[in-house]
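[Target chain]
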Amino acid sequence: MGKKSAAPPENRRTTPPENRRSAPATPRVPFSARYALWRERMRARFSGLRRVGSVVLGCCVVAAALAGLGAVGKLVDRHLRTSPAFATTVIEVHGASHLSHEEVAQAAGVHLGQNVFEVGPEDARKNLLAEPWIASASVRRRLPSTYVIEMEERHPLALLLLDEVYLVAEDGSAFKPLGPGDPSDLPVITGIAPEAVQRDRQGSAQSLLNAVGLLHDYQDAGLFRREPISEIHAEDDGSFSLYVGGDATYVRLGKPPFHAKLGRLRQVLADLSSKKSRPLYVYLDNDRRPDRVTVRVR
């Protein structure tokens, strides 16, 4: 006997096949589209790698070029510094009067036969400015074998007596101690103590400037040749006195300005000279009566 299938329970629900939900089927991508997408991804990836490679390659090329230039530069520099074609044959010096041509060249650090690239123009200029006699300088290198030096020397107007004797230039600077061969027949500035220079450099510098200004005014008054100054004495209060002439006549000027006072001094000396007389001293420091002159005749 065949078995009868069991009847479904009465409460069991059945859903017709046509009403059942099913998961949407994934559309199938054609192989050609998948290949095209893969190729684009690979192209983008390799494009980035090519850009990186190009940068790296460019850096390597630049580094190699620089290294090559550096090597070439060293060879050129070695040639310039050793070639006999660049040996110094001419050193032109303009503006020297106290210093000789050889002394200027030595101060600059250059000499004949030396390679012109051994000492640069700026280094030579600095060397020159270290020489006390030289106030300003410029140096040019004219290839293949010439240095051109243009300079200005200091011109001493007086001697400054401190712990030793110094030369004083037109700008009021005590630029060097008096040495052998230096001019010594100059007015001597006294009254500035060495300890005062250490204590008040600015004040001492102003005293020197006033003394130099007094020398210029004295020359402008036409007195320098007739009554040469042997000594300029600076007082603590800023006033000045002079010893002038062969007999060291004492002249008390007081404080600057000096131009008008020196004009009156010239008149007094001329009047006494016409009377065949000489003063022992002349006082021109009356601030209340600037036109008043006190004279004592010898």
